Amino acid sequence: MKIINLTPHPISLASLAGEIIQTIEPSGQIARVSTISVDAGYFVCGLPVVRNTIGEVQNLPPSQEGTAYIVSLFVLSAVVSDRLDVVAPDTGPTCVRDSQGRILAVRQFLAA
Question: Which of 18, 41, 46, 85 falls between 20 and 30 A from 58, CA-CA?
Fold first, then answer.
């Protein structure tokens, strides 16, 4: 399977034992979600509060047989759920972290 990383970060994959087995470098194309900010009508500490509305997903290629696209969790949340080829790294409790809590690798992906 061809895997295209549409995030700006390398994504390392780990075995169940925690060993890094592969790193998928960024493709150079970044999938993003547009947002529209709407004034919420009040202030906190003198700063205006806004509500963001999720807009369209940008830079996500159409489905191609045998290809999976890695995107951020934010982009994944905006993707139509029938896109089984779009996944995000699962950075929850199953990921591999260093002693300072930084993510080193993921052991699974999340689907839309």
Answer: 41
74 part of a folded domain: yes
Q: What is the 3-state secondary structure (H, E, C) of 38-70?
A: EEEEEEECCEEEEEEEEEEEECCCCCCCCEEEE
Structure tokens at 67: 């290809």
Strand pairing class (67-70; 47-58): unpaired
Q: Which domain holds residue 85?
A: 2-32+58-111
- pLDDT given for residue 76 in this prediction: 96
What pTM was computed for the model? 0.86
Long-range contacts of 24-28 (CB under 8 A, 24+ apart): 24/70
Closest CA to 14 of 1, 5, 24, 4: 24
The answer to whether position 37 is within a domain reads no
Please give the Cα distance from 83 to 19 (Å, whole number).
Answer: 29
Residue 111 CA to residue 45 CA, distance in Å, equals 38
